[in-house]
Amino acid sequence: MRTPQSAFLIPFQVSMRGSSTQLLMLALVCLFSAFGAVGQKTKSQLEEEKKENLRKIAEAERILSETADEKKVTLGQLQALNQQINARENLIRSIGSEIRILDNEITDLRIVVNSLQNDLILLKEEYAAQIYSSYKANRGNSRLMFLFSAKNFNQLVQRLKYLEQYSEARKLQAEQIEEVTKELNDQRSKVEAKRAEQQTLLNQQVRESRKLARSKQKQSELVAQLTKKERQLRKEVEERKEANRRLNTLIAKIIEDEAKKSTTVSTAEAASAAELTRLFESKKNNLEWPVSGFIASKFGNQPHPVLKRITVVNHGVGIQTEKDSKVKAVFDGVVSEIWVLQGKNNVVVLRHGDYMTVYAKLKTVNVKKGQMIRSNDIIGEVYTDRDGVSELEFQLYKGASKLNPENWLAMK
């Protein structure tokens, strides 16, 4: 038979069960979420990627519009369109990653919501059990009668403690019900907000996918039109080879002359050159870009973008940019040479200790041979050809070794 004391103690003992269940479920959700996030990019990183890809898309669109204004089908148009397609594909991938992150977050939130719903049911059942147990144990008897029916003083004190415990238990249970109800409503609101955010991203992904499809269709049309100009393209390849040969001959002469000079320099000059070399090397992967734009022609042996089985040899990179863009020095140095070459226009060579940078296809030159240059100093303006293409040729050497500038320029 249940005593009056047990009627107050049992509800108090079970009142903490719902809270423990809730905390356990929340801990498990956090644990699973942490494991799922390992190796994934964060939402803030993906947002930055999206911004950068949108910037690249806009930049490529501006460059593309300049070449399109010439009413000609050119490789420059194709290169700008390819850049735009790559940036848009990266953008769509970033959006997809964000959508997957939101999927995981929504799943986690739903687990929390289900846990809170179960806890709320349990808390309400326990609260009802408290009321019923109290009524059943004290039916027909008031609390005063319960106290005054004590056989001695010690029993009276004990019954007072039981009543206090019972009162606290009911108060705690009511507070827990209120807190869990509030938390449940908050979590439901978060789920709705995440779903709305996800829908916005899905809409954006659909829009970008449609734009991508249109760009790829245009890309196919451009390639088809350029293929019809095979004879002209082959002629341009040969002209480019000859221009490269002339430039390489001059650069080889510079390297030979510098090697001879190195045997006669003073100790102070040698120390200064060594320090400049060290500083230049410390900027690997973080050199300033000589001009805004994108890499249209990569370093080394590259397949021709249109002609099959034709390889184009690039001793540097071609950075396609906007008309009249200013060309800047990538690092401190001295102007070693300035030339005017057929197929390369104006060429400026800067020396940075053991390193050398070459800037070709300049319309104008703002520096003189022997002039000391600081990083970001303007050395000239990019040349725009008859097809409306503005592309800087940028090369990098250490001694006689050609280096891939993409491995040195800052990531964009």
From TrEMBL:
Q: Which UniProt keywords apply?
A: Coiled coil, Hydrolase, Signal
Question: A single Gene Ontology molecular function, please?
Answer: metalloendopeptidase activity
Q: Does the keyword Signal apply?
A: yes
Residues annotated as domain M23ase beta-sheet core: 314-405
Task: Kindly list any coiled-coil regions of this protein.
Answer: 43-70, 99-126, 163-260
List the Pfam families. Peptidase_M23
Membrane-crossing segments per the record: none
Q: Does the keyword Repeat apply?
A: no
Gene3D superfamilies annotated for this entry? 6.10.250.3150, Glucose Permease (Domain IIA)
Q: Which PANTHER family match?
A: L-ALA--D-GLU ENDOPEPTIDASE (PTHR21666:SF289), PEPTIDASE-RELATED (PTHR21666)
Q: Identify this protein by name.
A: Septal ring factor EnvC, activator of murein hydrolases AmiA and AmiB
